[in-house]
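Sanity check. The docking grid for uridine-5'-diphosphate depends on where the pocket ends up, so I'm generating a full predicted complex first rather than guessing from homology. Inputs follow.
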Amino acid sequence: METTKRMMLFPFMAQGHLIPFLQLAQLIERRNGYSITLINTPSNIRNLRSYLPTSSSVHLSSLPFNPSDHGLPPGHESMDSLPFHLLFPLYKATESLRPAFTRFVSDALSLDPTSPLCIIADPYLGWTVDVAEELGVFHAFFVTGSERSTAIYHSLWTLWPLQWSHSDELALPNRPNVRLHRSQVTKLLLYGDDNNPIFVFFCRQIAHFCKSDGVIVNTAEEFERSGVEFLKEESGGMPVWAVGPLLRVPSTPSSDDTHIGWLAGHPPDSVLYVSFGSMNTISASQMVELAMGLEASGTAFMWVIRPPSGFDFKGGFREEWLPEGFEERMREQNRGVLIHGWAPQMEILSHGSTGAFLSHCGWNSVLESLCNGVPIIGWPIAGEQFYNSMMMVEEIGVCVEIARGNGNESVVCREDVERIVRSVMMGGEGEEMRRKAREVGEVLRAAVGEGGASVRAMDDFLRTALPTMAGKD
Ligand code: UDP
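Predicted complex below; grid placement will be based on this.
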């Protein structure tokens, strides 16, 4: 008789992690014989439920978690719902989930000792490696970023402290061909400090990375050839399975979807979509320059806008954060739409009127853009976003970088915004980038199509993680 194989998936509490983990759960679900449980805190589980079709067999289970025990407002259990100063308390609070998670997995093992079980966890939940070891089950990390960027980021942590004294540029000692500018290194690492609890927390998580049994990555091998080997090396020779891109299927727009309706009123490839992801934002002065540059460029745009850094939504969006009369003027001219809140990103990117994406280069956004053949104007802000942008510019040729955030200090001027937006939306440079983005989109889609390399990698991962038990199947 066939034994049910159990997968326990545990994402970090941020949209850029929860969404791909749910995709991964659904991908495994399509193969028969797996019982899949996605674990998280109560409010994230409630939200995930709304994304999952009622017919799905994926179990959603919550671990007890009280935000106020960690200084967080009630119901705020995900990075995107918190202001910057409360991000670290949430990172830290994830460590408190360890006893409940251990109990959850150990109860599952006692209930059915014959069905094999595997944990797939987020690298930000590094301690799950220890739980797996304690309980004797297979453990894999699921990296929701790119192979190459994750490897660079990991190198920077393990090589810390690096000497920047002679120049603003530095080659990674273990990869001399990777040259970084100090504006591409997160402040936490540049000014790393053993007495800073945030720094120490990240060091702890990174140290767990190499102790897992393997790494699954949301990318395709053909797309990131240089990344596979680099990540393998970084992870101490662990197996690496590139199983992506894991993408949501855009929903069919309904007639009352105003954003999609607005896009439909514009010619093909004529609208610039602007978004800094689910939690990042830019400074108030950058926001004004971006608005002025967009207005001067003459391009139609759709901008997912959040309060600038240092502010939150309390009291609503303030007009003073934008040039006087900007929103009204853009609306009257049918030139631009500001989305205050959550945008249907996949539906926007897959719409024929969207011609480019001004993005913070979060990995999900990069993949969603390229799978839809949409080139990128990069404005990375934190973490590995700098290396995603760099790879898209230097290796893939589908991106031009407009600014870097890094503590929101980058000076951005409206003239540069106007010039770059015009060249991508109206010039030959944009046409060439769009052609390449479409080519890359085909490579990515082929990887997850029938017989594609990512499908084969998934087969191999499943065989390795939960081998058929001799005599049982
Ligand atoms: N997203 C969305 N609407 C928004 C903002 C974000 O649907 O208004 C989704 C986006 O499609 C992507 C994820 O949230 O799947 C963000 O992940 P990414 O890696 O791009 O950036 P992060 O938010 O993790 O920085």
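Relevant for the grid: Residues 14-16, 19, 275, 277-280, 304, 342-343, 345-346, 362-365, 368 surround uridine-5'-diphosphate (CB under 6 Å).
Also worth noting: The chain has two domains: 5-248+448-465, 258-445.
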